[in-house]
């Protein structure tokens, strides 16, 4: 690798996915495109989203409520268009995916089915400093079940002086709680450090002690390799507004392993949209679930939200998710190389990368701890048209995403960062 604009441009010229950038609306200021490295927060808008939504609006104007059954694209079947491309992204079977609600809501719903404390077996293992919404979900859900969060929630932290959590520490905590563990609910990729966890090993360890394993994939879905079905994961939930580019407040999704689809011993919260399809509109008493993950659906979904999701999933399918992962890794590798160069050219290290470097343990996000004047540097980046993310007390997170970011942008980011640190 070279720290050189011409080299970055050469990488872009050789990039087989470079044309996908044209599928997106890149934010610009006075005609100059900005560097948007916030795809881990809200992915950019695909150009085709507006026309997908417009089609739904036209259906609505033409048929009113009958648009559920009439027209070119009846809304009753809209969900079917989403689950195949989405299943390919999370490594599931289409029947194991349901597109519904939003992430925190879905986590609660999955807890209803998969957190079934029995006597002593009531503990939940999770990451310390999980995303706040997950923490509030745990706290309130456990309390609603009449249990004390302080007693049942076991948080695993990085070791002193380390930023990421060691797999061996997660596995040994699972073994330590072999007799009282009900559930391991973990993040697939930590939002702060960018660390990707070994979901297969965590799932195997949980199952070995008779517990369930579920994952919050907010920062993993559409970013890193997932093989949920093959790994035997019990359930997972994610949002679609980050790497999946489906718009602010986009519809979320959940995965439920097929072994549970017809397991009637499982508890769940139900609504009419999860009712078996052929007789749903008979409106009879007694809940009969759809025998797939769709059986966890509750409410009438919004075809408008679905349309935005479909527009984006079409782009993923055209690009090929494996190709995207390769490019995402190449972008973050290039960034790590340039960040090392910044440290090497300074008298003493000016920043510390807290994202793991091996490809199995990272996606495209890179988090760096700034040793001095972090916020000033961050503000300078923003003035220079670079969108990054600031996390207190001193971390800058960036996500060069493979669908619309370029190697030249990574180079521009690193150059601007270097200058901002020097000044
Ligand atoms: C890891 C993680 N969990 C949960 C959430 C909350 O998601 P939502 O607001 O869609 O419920 C987020 C949002 O960014 C997140 O990053």
Which small compounds were modeled alongside the protein?
A: pyridoxal-5'-phosphate
* Order of H and E elements: HEEEHHEHEHHEHEHEHEEHHEEHEEEH
Number of domains: 2
Looking at the overall shape, the CATH architecture of the largest domain is 3-Layer(aba) Sandwich
Please identify the top-level CATH class of the largest domain. Alpha Beta
- Provide the gyration radius in Å: 22 Å
- Kindly state the mean pLDDT as a whole number? 97
- The CATH homologous superfamily of the largest domain is called Type I PLP-dependent aspartate aminotransferase-like (Major domain)
Report the CATH topology name of the largest domain: Aspartate Aminotransferase, domain 2
Residue windows where pLDDT falls under 50 for at least 5 positions: none
Our count of helices gives 13
Helix and strand composition category: alpha/beta
> Span between N and C termini?
26 Å
Give the biggest beta sheet. Answer: 7 strands, mixed
**Tell me, what's the shape?**
globular
Helix content: 25-40%
Which strand order spans the largest sheet, edge to edge or round the barrel? 4-10-9-8-7-5-6
Strand content: 5-15%
Enzyme class: hydrolase
Pfam family, one: KYNU_C
Cofactor: pyridoxal 5'-phosphate
Catalytic activity: L-kynurenine + H2O = anthranilate + L-alanine + H(+); 3-hydroxy-L-kynurenine + H2O = 3-hydroxyanthranilate + L-alanine + H(+)
